[in-house]
Amino acid sequence: MFMKKTFKLFLVSFFLLSLSIGSTSAFSLGSGRSVDVNVPLMDNFYAAGGEVNVDQPITGDAVIAGGIVNIQADISGDVLILGGKVNIYANVGDSVRVLGGTVSISGNVKHDVVVSAGTLEIARNSTVGGSVLTAGGVVTIDGNVSEDVVGSASFFKLKGWVNQNVDITADDVINISGSAKIKGDLKYYSRNPAIIPAGVVLGKTERRGDGEGAFKEVVLGFFSVGYIVLKLLTYISLLLIGLLLFLFVPHEVTKISDMMRKNFWKHLGLGFLVLTSGAAFSLIAAITVVGIPLSLIVAAALATGMYVTPIVIGLFLGNVILKHKPRSNGKTYGVMALGMFVYTLVCMIPLLGALVSVVLLLAGFGSFVRRQYELAMIVRGKK
Q1: pLDDT for 22-70, tens place per residue?
Q2: Under a CB-based contact definition with an 8 Å cutoff, are residues 185 and 169 in contact?
Q3: In this structure, are 295 and 186 located in the same domain?
Q4: Which domain holds residue 130?
C-alpha cells in the first residue's frame, strides 16, 4: 500500500508537469551570477545562477537552478528547483518539486510538494493543497496538508494538521506535537516508539517493524521512497540538461532524434560498435603513459555522448507517443519532458526495463555519433 500510494503520487505529479511544460511555447531565460525577476512575467521562466530572486509574479512555470533561490512573489504554475538554499515565501498555483540542501516553504502550494533535501520546513500558516512526498535529513511540517504525508527522514516532526494519512520512516526520531492533528491513519517506522499525544490521530496508529521485521521495513522503505525519489531526482536533472540543450542547440537535438526515429536499428548497431570499441581502446591506451591523454579524451567523448543520449531518447519517445510533427522549441521541450518521463517509468520495470533502456541508449548514442560525423564532414568540406 505504501509503495502504491507513493508511486501514484509520483506518477500523477510528474505527468502534470510534463503536460504543463508542453502547453506553451513562450518563456523567459535568465542566467548569471545573480538573476532577479524585477518585472511581472506572463510566461514560463527558466534561470540558472549563483543567486536567483523572484520578486515579481510569474504567470507560468518556473524552472530554476541556483545556489540560493528566493521566491518572494506568486507563481501561477509549477515550481521546479535545484538549489543549495531554497526559500519559498510566496504562493504557488500548482506543485513544488525541489532538490536542495535547505528548503523552507512559508507560502501556500495549491497541489503537491515533492522535496529531497537535507532540511525541509513547511512553516506555520502554510497550506499544501495536495500531498507531501519527501526524503530528507530533518523534516518539519508545521503547516497544514490537505492530503497525505509520505516519506523518510532521520528526524521527523509534525506540528500541523494532515487531513488524510501519514506514512513515515525515520532513522532516529518521530516527534508528534500536541498541536498536530492527523485525520486519517498514522503508520510509521522508527527505532524507538513515537510519543503521540492523545487525540492527535483520529484513525489507526501502527508502528511497523520489530527485530527482523524492522530490517524488512527499512528495505521496503528504501525501495518505496528512496528508490522513487532517486528516479525523481534523475528526472529533474535530465530536465535541466534538456533545458540547456534546447536553449543553445535545439536544432541538433531535434535532428539527432529524427535520425534515431528514421534508422533505429542501424543506429543501434552503430552505437554498440562505437561504444564497445571506444571503451576497449580507452582501456588499452590507458596502460601506457603516452596513451593516457588519448584514453581520457576518448572516455570523455563517450561520456558526453551517453550524457546527451537520454535527452534524445526523451524527444524520440515523446514524438512516438504524440506523433511526429513540427513544433516550436517550447512545445518540443514539453514533448521531450513527456517522453523522458515515460522512459524513466519504463526503466523502473525489473529486467524488461533494463533491456529496453540498453536498446534505447545504444540507438540514441549511435544517432549522436552519426550526427557528429556529419558535422565533422561539413566543417571539413568548408575548409
Answers
A1: 333 344 555 456 788 888 888 888 877 778 899 999 998 888 877 788 9
A2: no
A3: no
A4: 2-219
**Do residues 47 and 195 share a domain?**
yes
Question: Residue 326 class from Cβ within 10 Å (0-12 exposed, 13-18 middle, 19+ buried)?
Answer: exposed
- Does residue 240 lie in a domain region? no
d(CA 102, CA 95): 18
Q: Is the dihedral of CA 312, 313, 316, 317 positive or negative?
A: negative
Do 139 and 177 belong to one domain? Answer: yes
**Shared domain check, 211 and 258:** no
3-state secondary structure of 139: strand
Residue ranges in the chain assigned as alpha helix (H): 2-21, 212-221, 227-248, 250-262, 264-285, 292-322, 329-347, 352-382
Contact 204, 184 (CB under 8 A): no
CB atoms within 10 A of CB 207: 17
pTM over 0.70: no
The percent of residues above 90 in pLDDT, for the chain, comes to 22
Quick check: is 85 in a domain?
yes
Mapping DSSP onto H, E and C, the string for 188-250 reads EECCCCCECCCCCECCCEEECCCCHHHHHHHHHHHHHHHHHHHHHHHHHHHHHHHHHHHHHCH
pLDDT tens string 229-284: 666 767 777 777 788 777 778 888 888 988 998 899 999 999 889 888 877 776 67
User: Distance (Å, rounded) from C-alpha 252 to C-alpha 370?
Assistant: 12
Helix (H) or strand (E) holding 114: strand 113-122
341 shares a domain with 264: yes
> pLDDT per residue over 214-237, tens digit each?
444 444 444 445 556 666 767 777
Model pLDDT for residues 180-225, shown as the tens digit of each residue: 999 999 988 887 788 888 889 999 988 876 444 444 444 444 444 5
